[in-house]
Amino acid sequence: MKIVLITGISGSGKSVALRLLEDASYYCVDNLPANLLPNLVSTLSVQGHTQIAISIDARSSVDFARLPSQVDEFRAQGFNVHTIFLTADDNTLIQRFSETRRRHPLTREYKDNNDNSLVESIGLERERLLPMLAVSAIIDTSKLKARQLQTWIKDLLSLRNDSMTVLFESFGFKHGIPMDADFVFDVRCLPNPFYDHSLRPLTGLDAPVQEFLVAQPDTHLMISDIEQFIQRWLPRFEEDNRSYLTIAIGCTGGQHRSVYIAKILADRLIDKGLRAPEQVLVRHRTLR
Q1: What pLDDT shows up at residue 279?
Q2: Does the pLDDT of residue 161 top 60, yes or no?
Q3: 281 within 8 A of 168, measured Cβ to Cβ
Q4: What are the sequence ranges of the domains in the chain?
Q5: Mean of the pLDDT values across residues 102-127?
Q6: pTM of whole model > 0.85?
Q7: In the CATH scheme, what is the code of domain 2-157?
Q8: In the chain, what is the straight-line distance between the N-terminal and C-terminal CA atoms, in Å?
Q9: What is the Cα–Cα distance from 47 to 45, expressed in whole angstroms?
Q10: Which residues are known binding-site members for ATP?
Q11: How are beta strands 80-87 and 137-140 bridged, if at all?
């Protein structure tokens, strides 16, 4: 089992990191009390989970001193454990809390029956988290945007092979354009099998319709142009930390041309090794 422990200063990006790992198919737990960590790992291991990510913050102060030894124990048991400590300078943290207007988690840990100030809360949090510094990879997010932090964590945890999923979606324009589409390609200019009475009741998944479309030179040109566009820009969207990319192919009714072309594009993406089969999905929105 691969275990990623995420800790650090509030406002430094723990939620950003956890969302990234959730998108990478990790079982994620946020704000877990530190004393519950061994039981959670044991339970999830028995249930067959192979990747878990756990965020632990300074509210677990009583148990933080024990965390480094727990990390060593997990490793001795054969678990692959990574610990990431996120931090930022005080000025950056103050600005982030001001922008979000959220209260620091340690504000209500009273001193003289008064709330702690933001600066006092940050200082208290730094003190409590000290035990984890020695066993963690430390990332200072002061000058990082969320996208950059995600990239750094991907590199740190070797998540680069967890490529985004590409969804090819056929649809009919007469039923409306899919709202979830990132790209929409219109293939209505191609010859329409609908006007052949023998092909009308069939779909783009049936051999006679496919043979009809393969016989049209423009079909090959259209598929080639869309394929080249996808191959050129797919890496850029992946660098943008996208988890999904939806490519919609539309014809008039969503039954013949778009269905066939969506299937062919998906097959080619897999055949050329650009995506594993489980990272390519095909859906037909208006297929009867």
Answers
A1: 85
A2: no
A3: yes
A4: 2-157, 165-284
A5: 78
A6: no
A7: 3.40.50.300
A8: 44
A9: 5
A10: 8-15
A11: parallel
